[in-house]
Design brief:
The protein starts with a helix and ends with a helix. It has 582 residues and is an alpha/beta fold. The strands form 2 sheets. The protein has an 18-stranded mixed β-sheet that branches.
Amino acid sequence: MKLLPTITLLFLGLFSFGQEVKDKPESEFDRVMTYTEFWDEILSCKDTIYFLDNTLIKWTYIETQKVSDRFLDTIIIKPKLELTNLEFRGGGNLFQFKNMKFNRHVAFNWSVNAGFVFIDNCVFENGLELIYQRGNYISTLTNCVINKTFWMGHVGNNNDEENSPERQFSFKNCTINVLEDLYISPTSSTAINIENTNINSNSEQIALIIDHDFLSLYMDSCNIDINLKLDNLQIYKSVNIKYSNFLNISISNFIYPSETNFNFKWVHLKDKLSIIQSKMIEAGPEFPEGFNLIHDSYRGESNEELSQVYMYDNLTAIYNKLFQIYKSRGDIESSNGCYIEMKDLETRRRKYLYEIEGGTKNYLNYKINTFLKFFAEYGTSPVRSIQISGWVILIFAFFYFFFYSDWDKINRKFLMQQSNKLIIYFKSEQKLEELYSDKHKEDLSTFIQFKQNLKDSKTEVPFFFMVFLKPLYWVAVIKHKFNVFLYKRVEFLQGTWSNLTAGKKFFLGTLTFLSIITYGLYLIFVRSLNSLILSINTFTTLGFGDIPVVGISRYVAILEGFLGWFLLSIFSVSLISQILQN
């Protein structure tokens, strides 16, 4: 009987609660037992099921304290436990129950009023049922493994539910492997907390179903690999879900708490929001007993689903409701994500209508949605619009690079003229400064003529003309003389190319080659810069005046102007939309 005190500690608290309600007379119970008798019967049971109903079990808190620190290794309970309508009296109201393995199904159904239940490091191989008939409770399962089935709920009448103290049910660090639906049936004063918990199933048609309005829902770091069905519910106080993954989530006809208490970011709902439809199927290898309930998720993805107008409208309404809540909360990231997925659903619907009905209108509706998704994420991303516009500008600038522009006048004729000047320089004894001076003789003559005109008009014009205009002449002349001086200093060819020695030819040839490459890079830079500025100017200003390009590039510039007007209009709408949301 060494196990008896420990088992007594583990289970007695499970049913130990303060007696705020009026106690039922002992005479109304079928049996009255002590804890020793209770556990003697369980441990000595030779049958596969241990059943106990309408029984009063008496215990004292002092007895439990004596063995509170004497937990042994894992205790294996062999019979299936069906404990219904039990009431525990005496002792305290705290129960900690750990290191136990139940080989068969466990069903706890008790009539209690208040208590704290902590189930730690236990394994339920064939499922667990926690049924509360009345009263208040705080139940926590930590580090537990539950296989096959789980059901937790409150049954019986509760005439003053609204004024009942808050109840709480928690999972922490648990693993639940279910073969059928997992049910939680709370009351309106129950808070549900699920942390670091994995819920798994081999079937995508299994669901975690919460089928009663409740107080609050808190989930953190959970992996729910089954459907989560919260249809037709109201959560009165708060929803707080963080760092969790889900298979599908259904929230049809869901009544949300206030926006400030709805902390369920779209990142957890992305690609998960659906309408879960339940249907009965006949027994089969996977479900051997009678008829079974399975769940299919409607997400409006296939043509078959998109043909269901009623379901499509309901799912759109769910998206829209969430979108409005996120906007009210000021959660722009979530509202944008929700809106994008809602518009994706609309785009799929428009594509379906075009494929079924055809028609130019359906085609344009579908293609416009597709374009808006690509260009601006349906108006939620002005930054994406700017990025794509930038690429459009660069593509047109690349095109303009290969065509003549009045801004730089670089074409084949210009390159041949420059090449002829270089050929003349190498063939003759003409200096670089002479080439420069010959080119700018007309400019220099203009400068001299300007100076002479000022001198001749000295007595015929106001005095300040001489003060302010004469420096213009000196600036022009100084620049010209500086250039002449510079060309003298870089002069590297004395005489003609044919008279040079082989060594000088190699040196000067290399130097000339590098100079030509440098000049070519300069021309490329100038052409690139002009092409880019032309593309920006054309993209951002439709009808800005004479277009400095000719031929086909002129028509391309007009096309770019129209495209820029169209894209920048969408960008403006996207930007204004985001500003208004903020």
